[in-house]
Amino acid sequence: MILLLVIIAGCDDDRDPAGQLPDSNIELTDGFCMVSGDQVVLNHHDIAYYDFSAHLLYLKSPKTFSDVLSVYGVSAVYAGWEKMYDLNLHPGYSSTMPQGPFIWTEPTFYPDYIIAIDQMWTYEQILDGSADSREDPRIVEALEKYGQFRNGLQCVIDTILYTSPEEVEVRLELTNPDEENYYYLDPGKMGMGLFHYFTNGLYVWDSVSYQYLTQEVEVIPPDPWDSYDMEWMSLLEGGSSVTLTISYDLFDTVQPGTYAAFFTFPGMHFQVEREDLEQANGRIWLGDIDMHSTMMVE
Length: 298
Fold this sequence. Notes:
With 298 residues, the protein is mainly beta. It has 6 helices and 21 strands.
């Protein structure tokens, strides 16, 4: 009951008649809010910032995922007093697939100071460029109002060179559009085995045979498994870009044709404590960036 009263008091700071939920005495703020049933469980007072590249909501200390969602759950996201989308909690052990935006629980995959809003996509949705309700411009506006919007890192597949039936080179363009600097996992420093512990790397979708084509990389796990090392990372300064090249020499044979190629650029997840995020020259970037591109093989 005490926690509920604190949450309600936080929402009263910015009361506006337009913000009242239907059939409820609980009012939203004009920032980013999460709602469970007829109560606001998180608002802009609880948010440090939102990384839009990975859809990670960083909570202000001492707020935690467990404080906010384990008790009350969540059912919708609001911004500027308007409902943006429905939102569900989905256990990681469940045999069912989540629909629409959702939050993994048990496990959460991220440290307790982060709420990660995920989305499950089909290949058809990815290739068709289906709208992502998490990226509604009204959400950006609500976050920017309180200085809580961050672009995060952005990554695209720049080039895929298929030089032989088994040799493939992928070049990624990694960009930091924010003002602050970010540390990112550098495949050149980590080596193929360790880098591919954090990502599946390049894989190609063959719509004819309906199968993935990829290269099985001998993965080298961290020791211990839940650790990380700043020596794996490079610093990308605000407003700058870098090209990363990853080469495969035993890729599955791809017949001539046009294919959809996919790559997930990885970052740290549960390994980084809140107090370790801020390093000497920048912040450690957390999350993943899913990319796709068209690849032609002659």
